[in-house]
Design brief:
alpha/beta; Aspartate Aminotransferase, domain 2; Aspartate Aminotransferase, domain 1; three-stranded antiparallel β-sheet
Length: about 270
């Protein structure tokens, strides 16, 4: 999404590797000088899709300072700030010192209120940046349908019980998925936020091969990590948005994949 939007306006994206050893946070000080001289926007996405990684206030403070020092607009795409587990509360980029001077944060009701497809969200932060976005947006479409706006207002004014209830469901699903994967020898850590489990694939596969094998052998669809860039190689993304019954059925099939592979190995040996 970020790269396509950049290319549509004639820009050229520079991809920052997100590596496990760094908690899937970009190493801002390793961005080449020649890239910084041309860069206009620094895109962040925390809590993160696809890795489920989170960023704390120290990183956001560093990002705000980095944006100021390099004349960059810092944009944090934050649709998962209400989807969190184990009593964890994700922080906002705008809580960091200097963030409101250098950047903005995007949010949506798609995840927290299950309004995916309604396409309603908000942009907050630096007034000049928000106004520029307003100018662009007003020339692209005619706005959000009024009925959806009223529904969103009611959601924001109403109780937050549904968010807590949804998170309890997602956390239960997260725990089931992570337990099954680790029992199979597929390393996966429980994310503190977001709707995804980012799992290491077994040795001997590429991300694409592993995804294809799961589809061919047991009819399970996962997203190869390379769908999010070359540094996603070695991982797949699994979603927690399936209904419980479908998730249990899928996990049962996943266990069957391990049995199929065990029988295949025994036959070959």
């Amino acid at each position: 999404m970020y790269s396509i939007g950049t290319m549509l306006v004639g820009g050229r994206p520079y991809y920052m590797p997100l590596k496990e050893k760094n908690g899937y946070l970009p190493e801002l000080d390793k961005i080449p000088e020649e890239v910084l001289k041309q860069a206009k926007i620094l895109w962040l996405n925390y809590p993160n899709n696809p890795t489920g990684a989170t960023a704390e206030i120290d990183f956001f403070r560093k990002a705000a300072e980095f944006g100021k020092n390099n004349d960059l607009v810092v944009c944090n795409d934050a649709p998962y700030t209400e989807v969190a587990y184990d009593s964890y509360r994700p922080v906002s980029f705008l809580q960091a010192e200097g963030a409101r001077e250098t950047g903005v944060e995007f949010h949506t009701l798609s995840k927290s209120f299950n309004m995916t497809g309604w396409r309603i969200g908000m942009l907050v932060g630096n007034a000049e940046i928000v106004n520029a976005m307003k100018t662009v947006k007003s020339n692209l479409d005619s706005g959000i349908p009024q009925a959806i706006q009223y529904a969103a207002i009611e959601a924001l004014r109403g109780p937050r019980d549904c968010i807590r209830e949804h998170n309890e469901i997602y956390q239960r699903r997260r725990d089931l998925v992570v337990e099954m994967l680790n029992n199979m020898g597929i390393e996966a850590r429980p994310p503190k936020a977001s709707l995804y489990v980012w799992a290491k694939i077994p040795a001997g596969y590429t991300s694409k091969e592993f995804a294809e094998d799961l589809l061919d052998q047991v009819g399970i669809v996962v997203t190869p990590g390379t769908g999010y860039g070359k540094n996603g190689e070695g991982y797949v993304r699994m979603s927690l948005t399936l209904p419980d019954a479908a998730l249990v059925k899928g996990l049962s099939r996943l266990a069957g994949w391990k049995d199929i592979k065990s029988r295949f190995k025994a036959k070959r040996s």
